[in-house]
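May I ask you to comment on the folded chain given beneath this request?
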Amino acid sequence: MKKVIYAVLAVMFTATLTAQTFNLSAELRPRYESKNGYKTLQATDVDGSNFVSQRTRLNFGFKNKKLKAYVSMQNVRVWGDVSTLSSDDNATALHEAWAEVRISDKVSFKLGRQEIVYDDHRIFGSVGWAQQARSHDAFIIKHVFNKTNRLDVGFALNSDNQAGVDHLYSNVTGYKDFQYGWYHGNFDKIGVSFLLLNTGIESIKNAGLPEEKQVINHMQTVGPRVTFKTNGLSANTAVYLQTGKRIDTDVSALYYTGNVAYKINSDFKVGLGYEYLSGKTQDPTNTDTKIKSFAPLFGTNHKFNGWMDYFYVGNHGNSVGLQDLNATFVYKKGKFSAKLIPHLFSAAADVYDDTANKMSANLGTEIDLTIGYKVAKDITISAGYSKMFATDTMEQLKGGDKGERNCWSWVMFTIKPKLFSHTIK
């Protein structure tokens, strides 16, 4: 790890002889969590867990008229997972390492390990809440038409070694390749985005048969997002369709959302939202083999559908989908902020019990509360508490016991000092 840091520093320092700006920053983010029914209902008479995790980052960046470059090294660990007499180099990784080259005033390309974020993080997001976060190995061409219109075209191709013959990708990233186009334009009070994403997953077709072969099935995610903002009122809506194939199975899925918020005064803001992600019925008589469950793919899913992560955070895939009716109450004054979000969850497709009787679509209610205080420019303390009030239908889907505590609390320090900055004019 030390050798990597020294090498990066040497390269960056040399670059500043001709580069315009060099920056060095860090992040330390320890977080205490108490989990009792997090992501799934707590089993009867089973104790929850308490632990502290930490993300530590060292970030190097420089830019001049034609080039931007950025390297972010990070260490993610749980306090106590390494002996006090041992190092934890295995927990250290390269989170980002990219360069962006400016071809002209309007065109540039960005390549390397990078976070990809668009719109509200629903399809492409950084997953910043997770200590490890998310980044992709990708090549992106950016075209800025003018101050209000831009187009990004991105590509990714994944392999797990440099073998000289074709082999099945082990699916470390969840996809073999992707290609996408993302357009965004601002028109007075209205913003419009449009995404067309083609995602490929490699698999073996006809396994064990003479006609066995490797195939890459591609699924398409396509749709617009529209935002509106005027005075204290803001609103957004989005619709995405998914079609194509996923591991040799046809896909037909739908997502839509609508949200409105109003800023009452300089301190208070309220909002109301609804989100629908299609799913597949559990009806035992249903013989349709299509995938009808919408997959939010690379989104920051912790941001949506409750912070206890019952849905789409490594779970709830190919299930009955979700309807999420929620409200948001925000207070912010000076260095203090608070947010309260109640969610009313329902299944988007029919759920059946073990005796094939149709159950209520109501999955339960989650209440999320978070508060934050900015101690200084680079130091923030935040805390949260969430409670799940589940139903029998949630028990049927998740297992566990809806009568247990089923709550989650956390306290987090975020320290992000800017260590060094130098500009050559």
